[in-house]
Amino acid sequence: MARTRPGRSCPRHYRYSPAVFSRAADLEAQSLYIVGGLYGNPFALEAVLDLARRENATLVFNGDFNWFDVDSEGFGAINETVLRHAALRGNVETEIAGEDAGAGCGCGYPDWVGEAEVERSNEILKRLRETARGHPDLRERLGVLPMHLVAEVGGLRVGIAHGDAESLAGWQFSQEALRERPGHAEALLAGAAIDVFACTHTCLPVMQDFATPRGTALIVNNGAAGMPNFRDTRFGVATRIASAPSTQALYRARLGATVVEAVPVRYDYEAWMARFDRVWPASSPAALSYRKRIASGPGYEVEQAVRTGAVLRTA
Ligand SMILES: [Fe+2]
What we know:
Elements: E1 27-29, E2 31-35, H1 42-54, E3 58-62, H2 72-82, E4 86-88, H3 91-97, H4 115-133, H5 136-143, E5 148-153, E6 156-161, H6 175-180, H7 182-192, E7 196-199, E8 205-212, E9 215-222, E10 236-242, E11 251-255, E12 258-265, H8 269-279, H9 285-296, H10 302-305, E13 306-307
Parallel strand pairs: 1-5, 2-3, 3-4, 6-7, 7-9, 8-13
Antiparallel strand pairs: 2-10, 5-6, 8-9, 10-12, 11-12
Helix pairs in contact: 3-4, 3-5, 4-9, 8-9
The structure holds fe (ii) ion.
């Protein structure tokens, strides 16, 4: 009964109907950055703030901005800054805001993620919750963050959540599920009545288009803003939606007059490695699960992420 074990389950209160997205937009933006999975990397946070500042863009943090920030000072700084912007809670924020209800990290890990990794995630979460206890005000603010948001950019309706269109920790919009069960994702999109669905949570980026009753719709999963996403790279990825294309984009799709792009989050790599190693020394759960990826990226290529047309560049 793996589904009920900590780290494997998707708690009932994580769920919502795709129909929640068929509402009037909560915010309108000329240029929007959606930043998922900062994972407590303050240098990546600095980099996305800088990107947004340059074009006066709106930022939405769609969850898991905490993870490796188990040092009290780091935790305070990340959350104070993120919470000045529009933010949604991910499974990490939801679980550290509450007491242990048996969900572990709340990741809802599918079968292809190994047992040892799930256990280490539960340990990381436990440590992070201890840190969060020292910040009761922040903990309270994290607990009341919404799970979904609707934005409007250039006439496009953009649904934003941490997981997928029916669960905060859903894996239906992971690159694996989008390849294996595109029909299910298409049905979820149609039920959400949006043009673009921006998500994160599953740790690898993907951009895939679908035919829905509204026309072409796009799922864009940014992977992680605070960790490398592609083989032998040292930058995170964020989603950008705007009228004018960015010169930095890794890949993009155009919907009408608006572009939806994956942009690199080029943070101070050396500084982040040093911070990570200090907080999570060798053989700690985070070092075992993540250090290799943080150092040089996962075994995943830009070409695998793009399921809409041409890759622009792989820098
Ligand atoms: Fe997550």
